[in-house]
Amino acid sequence: KKFSEQLLPAAAKLCRLNMEFDIMPDFLLREKTFGDKDYDPSLTLVAFNTKDESPVGFIQAVIKQREEEKLGYIKLFCVDAAFRRKGIGAFLHKEVLEKLKLSGVKTIRVYESFPNYFMPGIDKNYTAAISFFENAGYKKFSETANLSADLSVQYFDTQNEEAALKDKGILFRRAIENDKEQIAQFIHKNFRAWLEEVFETLKNKPITLFIAEKNEKIIAFCAHEGNNKGTGWFGPMGTKEDFRGIGLGAVLLKKSLLDLKNMGYQKAIIPWVGPVQFYMQNCNCKVERIFFRYEKNLE
Hints:
Layout (H helix, E strand, L loop, with lengths): L7 H11 L7 H7 L11 E5 L6 E11 L4 E10 L8 H15 L4 E4 L11 E2 L3 H9 L3 E12 L8 H8 L3 E5 L5 H11 L4 H7 L7 E6 L2 E8 L9 E6 L8 H15 L4 E4 L5 H8 L2 E12 L2
Parallel strand pairs: 3-4
Antiparallel strand pairs: 1-2, 2-3, 4-12, 5-12, 6-11, 6-12, 7-8, 8-9, 9-10
Helix pairs in contact: 8-9
């Protein structure tokens, strides 16, 4: 059946019971499905046990328009552990794959459907999922990691750092609604791929976006709670190229993490990380999960 609001609680429960390294409260599945501007009900399917009508499989695919082409993504995929190796996952996968092909998609990736994504790849501990996608012809092309920072034992004081940068004419503050136009211009020019995720932070109350300014112009930003809201999700962040290397990122990182702590989170998740050393030095984070990135050519 096609996914619907009525099926959401049962589908979320299916994911919670069968994705042992993840959480999936109803509100999060709602964000991943109906909250995605590219959500397509024809690409979001639920399989049921014919005996009791309980869901035993769930798949969501989306199509994202990137700069040069349309990319397809298997955004979410779960099969009840008791019903695996019975062709349910293969059937669901085949159904969405055919629709992706008809839509002109030539390349498909697994899970990393930014800006609204659940995880940046397949967790290396999901052996069954790795086996399934490799058997279906997907090729591993990269790895990435999620870090975690324990917020309960850190305070993230930035007074001294901010004072030193203020002498250079640089100020830090939480963004406000009136900043939206300038934020849009800055992100579009410097970090276009993150525009939608950053805009999600402007919907939060209070806004979960911090900026650095010089001469009243934005030169850096740091966001949180823009994706996977309600889970302590950090990022994205970025600094204009000619202002890098002077400590702006460290201050903004700490301000965001302190805000997450004040919101009641014990832990921050720092996803899809490149520079591990930067985060380790500034928030004593640890590598929590490793993800394998897969793609399949449909031509």
